[in-house]
Design goal:
heterodimer, A: mainly alpha, Cytochrome C3, two-stranded antiparallel ribbon, 24 helices, 12 strands, about 5% strand, globular, disordered N terminus, B: about 350 residues, mainly alpha, Alpha-Beta Plaits, 9 helices
């Protein structure tokens, strides 16, 4: 059986004091220590069955079908066991160009027989040695390693490099971007650093090995861990080197997050027009492509790039394939580099978080927004008013394009106009209470706390970026309930449209009772307001005092 | 009498062909009933239902049932799945469905259960005294005065709705929702629909209800599963349902198919007169033919045997005659030879003596 370690023992960053830590963990209460003793006494039951460090060894698959089932391997358990014996990574991993190979005790997979021997020879001999020393160790017989079913579940939470981590690494690397970022020079067949071309690792390092480039998984494990190990060797503060450190949710949550990190500088614009004419294309002069794209005359969309940088944790949330303008790949008609997704779809996909609308839709799923937005009809195709929400600019003129004006000043002005054009309903026009008497024959009239509701909505709106930009002042909040009404100070009352139910000519319009109840209850449910309960009639309707 | 393979197959062929004929005629008839035009129905949008049991209360009041043991305001009855009984035409059930993410519990779904008032009711097709009737207004009504209490309707109903007054010793009736037929005749809406606070029940012409349902699904695709339960189930029902979760999760059968019960059974039932009337004739005919065949066979066999025996006999006689003739001739030849021989010898001795 492999060595079982309690979760809390697997903390990184305390590498130097690991020996002490094993038996006297710092910062833990006596109870936890007692618990630790219990765990040591009963390691199998207490150990987690859901682990990020489980690797299934099936390397032999490259030579055809497996003769025996694949081998589950707990990486961190082995690392810890070796650390106990003062052995490091090089005990299992060979070095290749000053980097540790990710393969076990080899650089290349030679042939089937040799590969089999690498595993059988090394694993079993090590386990036997430990067994001879009466130490706790892993299996030595075939069936113990090659198990048909394994009760440990592999669950590695993907690691991401957010702006906070980037900032911390920037500082640690003393702003030497070349320590991580590189390009591949195919002619010289080597990695080179090009200033101003830095981008996300994943743009080049894909899920599988490709010509001249290793997979992202390999690149990340080799580069990150190698650097962290170097730091540890020089007794510096270093990032995780164990599976748990990056891939365990609990451990990951311990990674320090720096708030308000400064912008990453890639000469990106602050405000710009999202348009079919990317600055790259314009600067190339009036090419046939530019002239053709010019034929599609849609009003431009001003876009606050700086703002969006701070709302997102990484650049690749929008720039999913390259740090270049969207329209470089997503051309008006679609191009191969943009997987033939034209610009219109790239911006408007409702489900895709890489598209503007898709991402905004996801943000609107927040309970604070869902009270009103949950009720907005989804089939808005062809609704021109809807388009005008973003397409605020003018139709660009060819001369200004030819002169190379990307128009960021105009875009900035438009966004400012949006800010200043917001219209608030005067407080005097908002009634504090609204008395509803439509169920007067059964209950006392309902005193709707109208002012309180309005205030609650406005408070939620004011603290939300997206609402701050797109809501046209406090009047927009009124539309949450007074739907279908223009944004005016005195919207029509519910009774103006809702009356007797089930009228054939108004079959899509609920009756007054249904409309009231649905409006209140649906909104409360969507926003997570639990009181009053929908089934508690007297929560809103007071019992009639003079009821017979 | 032994049956040869050929005989057996020919019987089977005759029986099979005879059985198939009426079915073919039925299918070619293309009889399809799409419901009475302008008939009324109710659309139950389960996403609006809050499980307040107001509908149960109203139903109880309208149909003048005895007050239940637990008051309608007590929502603890929702803990258990309930069915309609002879004293409750409708019940609301709560379903604790999974959330959108799949792991945590989602918002509970409430579903009202009552007679669905099929366009072609199974209960009516199973009833041999025609106590059930699909009215052109929509409701499926029941006439207790002709009911014989066989309860075939209860077995036939795919929704397990009709119930029986087992506690009524003298005049037990089959009980089920009437869609407030008497109220509809007065121009009122069904009792449950009238009181529903959220309009989770919409009353109207079935065609309009389908339009409403389709529009809701189109406008709020995230809210609904794209299916109107009852549009086609069992040939269509007057009650229609919308749901935000798959219907199987709220205990509504999706395995019923789109063919009404009468359509399913009429083919088989149309064969009853055929089997009762035609099969004896067919089988008797087959039997008679078989008998005839056997007679003919015996006759031919006897004749063949006779003729072959005769032939053999005559042949034997001929052979015998020939043999006799031959023997006679051989005998005569031998005598003649001996006589010639003796004569010759005499003639020789005579010549030597001279």
């Amino acid at each position: 059986m492999t060595l079982k370690m309690p979760l809390f023992m697997l903390r990184d960053g305390d590498m130097k004091s690991k020996k002490r830590n094993l038996f006297f963990p710092r910062n833990l209460s006596t109870i936890l220590m007692l618990f630790a003793v219990l765990i040591f006494a009963n390691p199998v039951q207490a150990d987690s069955k859901i682990r990020p460090d489980k690797i299934s060894i099936h390397t032999m698959r490259q030579f055809g079908d497996l003769e025996r089932p694949e081998v589950p391997f707990l990486h961190d358990a082995h690392t810890r066991a070796l650390e106990k014996q003062d052995k490091d990574c090089t005990f299992c991993h060979l070095s290749e160009n000053n980097r540790l190979s990710l393969k076990f005790k080899r650089i290349l997979d030679s042939d089937q027989k040799a590969l089999k021997e690498v595993y059988h020879g090394n694993c079993i001999s090590c386990h036997r040695e430990m067994l001879a020393k009466k130490e706790k160790t892993g299996p030595v017989t075939c069936g113990e390693c090659h198990v048909k079913t394994d009760d440990v579940i592999q669950d590695a939470d993907p690691m991401g490099f957010d702006r906070s981590l980037h900032f911390r690494h920037e500082k640690a690397a003393d702003n030497q971007c070349e320590k991580c970022h590189h390009e591949y020079d195919a002619s010289a067949q080597k990695k080179v650093y090009v200033k101003g071309k830095e981008s996300t690792c994943r743009y080049c390092h894909k899920s599988e090995d490709e010509e001249n480039r290793i997979s992202f998984q390999k690149a990340a494990h080799q580069s990150c861990i190698a650097c962290h190990l170097d730091k540890i060797k020089s007794s510096l503060v270093a990032g995780p080197v164990h599976c748990y450190g990056c891939h365990d949710r609990k451990e990951k949550s311990k990674i320090k997050i720096v708030e308000n990190v400064p912008r990453m500088d890639r000469k990106q614009p602050d405000v710009l027009f999202v348009s079919r004419f990317s600055p790259n294309k314009i600067s190339a002069g009036p090419s046939p492509q530019l002239l053709e794209d010019f034929e599609y005359r849609m009003k431009l969309v001003p876009f606050n790039h700086k703002g969006h940088e701070s709302y997102n944790t990484t650049c690749r949330e929008c720039h999913h394939a390259a740090l270049s303008p969207c329209s470089d790949c997503h051309t008006v008609k679609g191009s191969k580099s943009g997987r033939f997704i034209p610009l219109e779809q790239a911006m408007h996909q409702t489900q895709d978080s890489e598209a503007c609308i898709g991402c905004h839709n996801q943000k609107k799923k927040d309970p604070d927004c869902m009270g009103c937005h949950g009720k907005i009809k989804k089939d808005q195709d062809g609704n021109q008013e809807h388009c005008k929400t973003c397409h605020l600019g003018s139709i660009p003129e060819l001369p200004s394009l030819a002169a190379g004006m990307s128009g960021s000043k105009q875009a900035e002005d438009l966004l400012k106009d949006l800010e200043t054009s917001k219209k608030d309903v005067p407080l005097s026009a908002i009634p504090e209470t609204v008395v509803i008497k439509s169920l007067e024959n059964q209950y006392e009239p309902v005193k709707l706390p109208h002012g309180k509701i309005v205030n609650a909505l406005l408070q939620k709106i004011n603290t939300n970026h997206l609402a701050g930009v797109f809501h046209k002042g406090s009047a927009t909040a009124c539309k949450g309930c007074h739907h279908n009404s223009p944004e005016i100070d005195k919207p029509p009352k519910c009774e103006s449209c809702h009356g007797k139910p089930f009228m054939e000519e108004k079959m899509h319009v609920p009756g007054l009772m249904g409309a009231y109840h649905r409006q209140c209850m649906e909104c409360h449910e969507a926003m997570g307001i639990e009181k009053p309960k929908s089934t508690d009639c007297t929560g809103c309707h007071r019992e009639k005092t003079d009821r017979p | 009498m032994s049956i040869s393979r050929r005989t057996f197959l020919s019987w089977l062929g005759a029986a099979g062909a005879g059985t198939l004929l009426p079915l073919k005629g039925h299918a070619a008839g293309n009889r399809q009933f799409d419901g009475y035009p302008e008939s009324m129905g109710v659309l139950h949008d389960t996403t609006f239902c809050i499980g307040c049991r107001s509908c149960e209360n109203a139903c109880n009041r309208v149909n003048e049932f005895p007050a239940p043991g637990v008051p309608f305001s007590d929502l603890s009855v929702l803990e258990k799945y309930r069915r309609t009984t002879s004293k409750t035409y409708t019940v609301v059930n709560r379903f604790d469905v999974k959330g959108k993410a799949g792991d945590q519990p989602g918002t509970p779904v409430f579903v009202k259960k009552q007679c669905n008032h099929c366009l072609e009711p199974a209960c009516a097709s199973a009833c041999f005294v025609k106590a059930f009737k699909k009215t052109k207004e929509g409701p499926v009504t029941y006439d207790a005065s002709v009911c014989v209490g066989c309860r075939y309707c209860m077995i036939a109903c795919p929704f397990e709705i009709p119930s029986y007054e087992y506690d009524e010793p003298f005049t037990p009736r089959v009980m089920k929702c009437t869609l407030c037929y008497p109220r509809l005749m007065e121009g009122l809406v069904p009792g449950c629909v009238e009181v529903c606070p959220t309009e989770a029940l919409t009353y109207g012409k079935r065609e309009n209800l389908l339009t409403i349902a389709r529009k809701r699904i189109q406008e709020y695709p995230d809210r609904y599963v794209s299916h109107i339960y009852g549009e086609h189930e069992m040939g269509g029902t007057s009650w229609l349902y919308l749901s935000g979760v798959p219907f199987t999760e709220i205990s509504m059968r999706e395995d019923l198919g789109n063919i009404s019960a009468p359509m399913l059974t009429s083919g088989a039932l149309s064969m009853v007169p055929m089997i009762a009337g035609l099969w004896p004739v067919l089988l008797a005919g087959i039997y008679a033919m078989t008998l005839g065949n056997q007679k003919q066979y015996d006759l031919e066999k006897n004749m063949a045997v006779k003729s072959s025996v005769e032939k053999a006999e005559s042949h034997a006689k001929e052979v015998l005659a020939q043999a006799l003739e031959k023997a006679k001739k051989a005998q005569q030849d031998a005598v003649k030879r001996e006589v010639d021989k003796a004569a010759k010898a005499i003639h020789q001795t005579t010549a030597e003596g001279e």
